[in-house]
Each structure stands twice: as C-alpha cells, then as structure tokens.
Amino acid sequence: MSKHVFLTGPPGVGKTTLIQKVTQALKSSGIPIDGFYTEEVREGGRRTGFDVVTLSGKRGPLSRVSSDSSTSRREYRVGQYVVDLVSFEQLVLPMLRNVNHGSDAEKKICVIDEIGKMELFSQAFIQAVRQTLTGSGTVVLGTIPIPKGKPLDLVEEIRSRKDIKVFNVSKENRNSILQDVLAAVESCRK
C-alpha cells in the first residue's frame, strides 16, 4: 500500500506544472495541504535561477547564476548556479517541521518539489524529509529527478521504497495522468 506519491522525469518535462494542478484540485476539495515548489526565475528571456515558493505564498531564492567563478566563501554550486542554502532552509524547514506536528486525525498533504541536487546540500532538509516520509500523518506529493550522473542517496532511497508510488512524467503523458496522480494521492490518505 502506497503512503506517498512522487513524480519523476527529465528537466522541463512538466513535473512542477503537474504538481501545481494536483495541488489546486486537492485544495479545492478542501484537503489540508502545505509545501513548496521550485520556480524558474527568468530575466530578459534567460533563466537566472530558481526560487522556492511555499503554498502559503512565501517566496525566496533557491539559486542564482553566479557571475564570478571565485569561490571565496563556502559555496554550494550546481553547474552555473550558486545555491542559497540559508534562504532555502528558512522557508522550507519550518513548514516541514510544522507538517510533522499536526494531528493524525486527518492526513495532510505535503508538497516537496523537488528533492534534487540543490536541495540536498541541506542536511537538515534531508533529515526533515526522512522524518516526514516515516511519519504517519502526512502524505508526501513530491518530485525527484531522473537518475543522471552520481546517484543522490535520498533520491535513490525514495525511488526504491515500497511505500512510495512513482509516476514517470513524459511529454506524452503529462496532460493525461493528472487524474491518476490525484487518485493515487487520495488513496494514500485512506
């Protein structure tokens, strides 16, 4: 029996868009839901970074393109992006801790988009995600990247868990699997 639902697929395939559609549908049926998604930041038509946007409406930088290549202080980098760990943790950790301390009377849904390289620089985030996945009162609706390069421990852990249903999102199915994802989330709440 699945307890959580994750989407995976190549970058830009539409995982976040699908998560947002599922979130809207769940919200409109009155299901308690919290969490965050990552959104591209564009300037003049090019991507300059990513923001974390919480479902309660808070927003902060996750990463920005770094102009200089000098790594003076301890920087967390993914490609051309420098990760703002402080900003990420300040937005996401209180929300995750809060989700874990709700009442078990009704299962809450926690959106985690995504558990990727940038987010995994945060040890506290890894710990909070593991706690949320093991807790009984929360259904996680999350996204993980497709395997590429060096495996990310937490991602592989999630991929291999028996209590997690993983949907592979593709350009072909991204518009047709909304109902399946919704149904999977609903059955996790039972």
Describe what you observe in this structure.
With 190 residues, the protein is an alpha/beta fold. The chain is built from 5 helices and 9 strands. It has helices at residues 15-28, 85-100, 123-134, 153-160, 178-188; strands at residues 4-9, 33-43, 46-54, 59-65, 76-78, 81-83, 108-113, 138-145, 164-168. Strands 5-6-4-3-2-7-8-1-9 form a 9-stranded mixed beta sheet, sandwiched between helices. β2 and β3 form a beta hairpin. The radius of gyration is 16 Å and the shape is globular. The N and C termini lie close together (10 Å). 35% of the residues are buried. The model has no long low-confidence stretch (mean pLDDT 92).
Summarize the structure.
This protein has 190 residues and is α/β, with parallel strands linked by helices. The chain is built from 5 helices and 9 strands, in the order βαβββββαβαβαβα. The N and C termini lie close together (10 Å).
Q: Main beta sheet, described? A: 9 strands, mixed
**Proportion of residues in β-strands:** 25-35%
Question: Taking all residues together, what is the mean pLDDT?
Answer: 92
Task: Determine the fraction of residues in helical runs and give it as a percent range.
Answer: 25-40%
**Rg calculated over all Cα atoms:** 16 Å
Quantity of strands, as a count: 9
End-to-end CA span: 10 Å
